[in-house]
Automatic annotation (TrEMBL):
<dbReference type="Pfam" id="PF04237">
    <property type="entry name" value="YjbR"/>
</dbReference>
<dbReference type="GO" id="GO:0003677">
    <property type="term" value="F:DNA binding"/>
</dbReference>
<dbReference type="InterPro" id="IPR058532">
    <property type="entry name" value="YjbR/MT2646/Rv2570-like"/>
</dbReference>
<keyword id="KW-0238">DNA-binding</keyword>
<dbReference type="InterPro" id="IPR038056">
    <property type="entry name" value="YjbR-like_sf"/>
</dbReference>
<protein>
    <submittedName>
        <fullName>MmcQ/YjbR family DNA-binding protein</fullName>
    </submittedName>
</protein>
Amino acid sequence: MSVASAEFHLMLKALADVERSDAKEWESYSVRGKRFGYYWPRTQTVGLKQTLSEQEALVSERPDVFEVQFTAGGFGWVVVHLDGIEADELTELVYEAWRLSAPEELVDQIPPPC
């Protein structure tokens, strides 16, 4: 069970209006100016926006895969270790992070992953 960085980037391409910003040690992802994710190549981890209840559930169920990153604006961000997650689960989490930031009319255009 592991997701390669190239596979993670393909997940992002399946979503609408994703904007990438590069910093020295990470990449960040936004939809129409609202941030929903990060990627750190050095540690092969991803940070994703989630609901507070989802953050708590993920971290308590599998602390070897998920860590609390921070909470802000009523959302809980999680760090995901790519070497501990399957592609299907990560696809769902990436979609959810995007959905929490995207405007409703955009979300209506992109169905959730099956």
